[in-house]
């Protein structure tokens, strides 16, 4: 595969720069997942996934508990899951996932962010076909060879295993997310540096400096929207 996980590292950087906003977004995501099924991660796979992801961002327990209690309390607040697709400078491709209780507001804000920052909205399907939904799991303290051995013992055949930074990144099929985590937990791994279901571009592009600066403004504008949960793109922003 050989892909970098820049999108995920960008999320970490955003989290460090604006923890309160990221935590608020997690609160909505946890509430929605808890309301979709039982508010118990052992019987609600969607909730279990969100909580595993929240751990990698160090989301405080009180935010998690408050969101789950809100779902248990039968709140009638409903959110729609929306996906927008569009283009940035030099043919760059962008996917925006949102959770909103006001579809018109969110659509208007996303369209404005694109329009004011050198981008334009596309129709549904215009971009997503160039991305693959992928489970990405990160661990530390293991080599790629050791990680492969653990996965083989669990009878798991994943897409790719790469040594990056000070750890190992495993790329797997989306339905392998929990199985991969369980394999490493059984091998003594207690923390994950990454635990994401993400959209990885099939091909990354590099932008010239001016276009990249414009592109980063567009991504930041989208990320700053309260209803936007995640933004995926096909630009290699470097280290």
From TrEMBL:
* Database matches in InterPro entries: Integrase-like_N (IPR017856), TACO1_YebC-like_2nd/3rd_dom (IPR048300), TACO1_YebC_N (IPR049083), Transcrip_reg_TACO1-like (IPR002876), Transcrip_reg_TACO1-like_dom3 (IPR026564), Transcrip_reg_TACO1_YeeN (IPR026562), YebC-like (IPR029072)
Q: Does the keyword Lipid metabolism apply?
A: no
Any idea where the TACO1/YebC-like N-terminal domain is? Answer: 3-74
The answer on whether this UniProt entry bears the keyword Transcription reads yes
> What keywords would UniProt list here?
Cytoplasm, DNA-binding, Transcription, Transcription regulation
Record protein name field:
Probable transcriptional regulatory protein HR057_12285
What is the first-listed, main subcellular location in coarse terms? Answer: cytoplasm
Give GO terms for biological process: regulation of DNA-templated transcription
Compartments where located: Cytoplasm
Q: Which GO terms describe its molecular function?
A: DNA binding
- Entry's family note: Belongs to the TACO1 family. YeeN subfamily.
Domain TACO1/YebC-like second and third: where?
79-235
Recorded hits in SUPFAM superfamilies, A to Z, give: YebC-like
HAMAP family reported in the protein's UniProt record: Transcrip_reg_TACO1, Transcrip_reg_TACO1_YeeN
Which Gene Ontology cellular component annotation is one that this UniProt entry carries?
A: cytosol
């Amino acid at each position: 595969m050989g892909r970098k996980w820049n999108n995920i590292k960008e999320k970490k950087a955003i989290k460090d720069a604006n923890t309160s906003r990221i935590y608020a977004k997690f609160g909505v995501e946890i509430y929605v997942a808890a309301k979709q099924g039982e508010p118990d991660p052992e019987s609600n796979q969607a909730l279990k996934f969100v909580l595993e992801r929240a751990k990698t961002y160090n989301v405080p327990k009180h935010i998690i508990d408050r969101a789950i209690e809100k779902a248990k309390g039968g709140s009638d607040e409903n959110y729609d899951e929306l996906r927008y697709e569009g283009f940035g400078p030099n043919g760059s491709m962008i996917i925006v996932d949102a959770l909103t209780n006001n579809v018109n507001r969110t659509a208007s804000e996303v369209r404005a962010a694109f329009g004011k920052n050198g981008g334009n909205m596309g129709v549904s399907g215009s971009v997503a076909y160039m991305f693959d939904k992928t489970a990405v799991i990160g661990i530390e303290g293991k080599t790629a060879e050791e990680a492969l051995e653990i996965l083989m013992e669990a009878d798991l055949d994943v897409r790719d295993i790469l040594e990056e930074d000070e750890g190992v990144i495993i790329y797997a099929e989306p339905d392998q997310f929990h199985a991969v985590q369980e394999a490493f937990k059984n091998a003594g791994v207690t923390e994950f540096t990454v635990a994401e279901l993400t959209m990885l571009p099939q091909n990354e592009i590099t932008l010239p400096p001016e276009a990249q600066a414009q592109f980063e403004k567009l991504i930041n504008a989208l990320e700053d929207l309260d209803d936007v949960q995640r933004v995926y793109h096909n630009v290699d922003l470097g280290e």
